[in-house]
Amino acid sequence: MHPLILAIESSCDETSASIIQAGKVLNNVIASQTVHQKYGGVVPELASRAHQKQILQVVKEAMVSARISQNDLNAVAFTRGPGLLGSLLVGVSFAKGMAVALGIPLIEVNHMEAHVLAHFIGEKNPTFPFLCLTVSGGHTQLIHVKDYLTMEVIGETRDDAVGEAFDKAAKMMGFPYPGGPLIDQYAQLGNSMAFQFPHTSMPDLDFSFSGIKTAFLYFLRDNTKLNPNFIEEHRNDICASLQKHLISMLMKKLKLACDQTDIKQVAIAGGVAANSELRKSINEFSQKFGWTSFIPEFQYCTDNAAMIAIAAHYKFLKNQFSTLDVAPLANLQIGD
Prior knowledge:
Elements (H helix, E strand, L loop, with lengths): L3 E6 L4 E8 L2 E2 L3 E4 L11 H23 L8 E7 L3 H18 L3 E5 H7 L12 E6 L4 E8 L2 E7 L5 H11 L7 H8 L22 H17 L3 H32 L3 E5 L6 H14 L2 E3 L10 H13 L19
Parallel strand pairs: 1-5, 5-6, 7-10, 10-11
Antiparallel strand pairs: 1-2, 2-3, 2-4, 7-8, 8-9
Helix pairs in contact: 1-2, 3-9, 4-5, 4-6, 5-7, 6-7, 7-8
């Protein structure tokens, strides 16, 4: 069977819909939410309200773009978690309503597993097993991927995610939200060796980024006391140095994971996978250590429904359908 599936993503502040047919993603419609910019971060209640306003139009656009009708669908997929509970609830409720109305199966998808499976949307796909470094504003994980639907977290952050460290550092420097991409932008013009920051040492394959945020706060405080224009005058060098430091913390653990597992197929996923320094480092390490690396297209790095669609495709083939009493889970873990 060549299933035709509608997928919905609403875990945070992106409302997205995608159509997949026979394992081929036909489109990837994303509506971003600008309402959070003036608050310097995502406001959960505002996010859920925006999803309610946008979801119908986003789904309609995906259906029209794919030139299909509702009656052509074989299943409806949605993000069950992790994410913001109110945002997830909008997507879950919409998907349930469509499934009941059309009499077709419902498929729940783990958001983090979907980030990993985004690597199977295009033509260059990893083979099993492989390691995936999944990095975003809410997660930092090292995942041992054994099959499409069999994954194990072998390392993760003990506190904050690396994406949050980028955004919080940007906020300290006075950048608008989201500030992580701006750090990347300014870093292109700076000297990454201009400033040094302390490393947080964690056992085995785990990460910690709370310490670097505190150290960066004190770094800015102490230097702006001496020179009130310090940030403005050294903006590019600060961004380059911080970015290099954060990415080196990620790469150190990824290299250790490869050594421990003897796996040389390596992928990156999540919003921070769009970071230019991380992409450059993955390529450099691949050449140096003989890895085969996989880097997703930019549109599949941030939250999107295409990754939900590809995950749903593999679950459909295994008849892994959900019941109508399924509820969103804000802290859903890989393997749950």
